[in-house]
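Hi there,

I know you've been waiting on this one. I reran it after we fixed the sequence typo, so this is the corrected version. Both the input and the resulting structure follow.
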Amino acid sequence: MKKSLLALAVMGAFAGAAQAQSSVTVYGNLDVAVAATENKTTTNTGSVTNAKSRTTGNGDGALSTSIIGFRGTEDLGGGMKANFNLEYDLVDVAQGGNGANTSATLADSNTATSATASTGFGARLAWLGLEDAKVGQLRLGRQAQLVHTTIANGLAGGGNNVAGSFYSSGTNSMVNTAAIRPHLVFVNRAITYISPNFSGLQVSAQTSSHSYSAQDSVNATTASDTAVSAAYTGVKNLNIQAAFSRAENNTGTASQANKVQIQALTGNYNFGAVQAFGAAVQNKTTSMGDTLFAKTTTYELGLRAPVTPLVTLWASGFTGSRDGGSTTASTALTGGNAIVAATGSADVSGFQLGSVYSFSKRTSMYAIYGTQTLKGKSSQVGAKVESTGMAIGMRHSF
């Protein structure tokens, strides 16, 4: 009897030690805003289309996307850890997560108080990995693109969802947005290696691929994405990052198959009173046969300043150009960034102003205004698409 009790006590001690070496963290954002968007399209013949949207509950978040996530780690001993990250998008949280009315072209006046079935609960991250202090990290699953992490490093507005930055995706379904975001944010089936930090230098590599063929006599449809990046933080207050990404999507349909090559160089430096940001990004999209669909080059500069312990302001502006392309081809870009009325070559520009008032480290209110334009050139002189957005909202992080 005594031996049994002793064995149980020893087993309990080991179980307690193992449990103490593992941890899971729940985190997230709730971000809801009063928002307005206007997309004005002018053709080269002078015809004007003006689409407008107003909402008292932009639940997808203007400052940041509403999310919930689970992050965990287990100490395996000998300097090795197992990690995982599950993160979900809380789409349209302000209307109960009812994804059936996510279109910005439909007015949702539903005032029902009964529960709504959520169809807006989408996975953002879902990866599992191993980490060794001397060897680095290996991650498997759905992850953020390396080029996205690099681009976000150079944005004063932090990659918010309002017009005025080249990052703005125009995610609402209104027609004819001036969105030019050069990349998607996440990549499926990714294998990512992240090196240890060598005196401030850290390099990463990422690859993802998938192919399918119904039978040997039929060419496979294939999709792949390969990227490398480097980040240097060896100088105090300085963060410089560079990334290169190449994605191929061979669907077997000539108008949709494409190759996308993205190059990005970004940086930020904190002077104390103000933090400066800069980004240079190029997206070149071609057919599988190297016919140019579009090449977009953008440069964005910004400043971010804590003017008081509670108030932070930022301002940013971008400029650039898009060359080549056609309406049909450009809709096949992986970022979905068609030129719309300003088909072919176009100049791109925009600016954004924002402010955040922090009640605490977790709760804040914000106001953002921005505008951006695609202005046609060559055969499309006079054609342009102008997108303007503003939002006043509140965010709570947990």
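Quick highlight: Residues 282 and 381 are 23 Å apart (CA to CA).

Best,
R. S.
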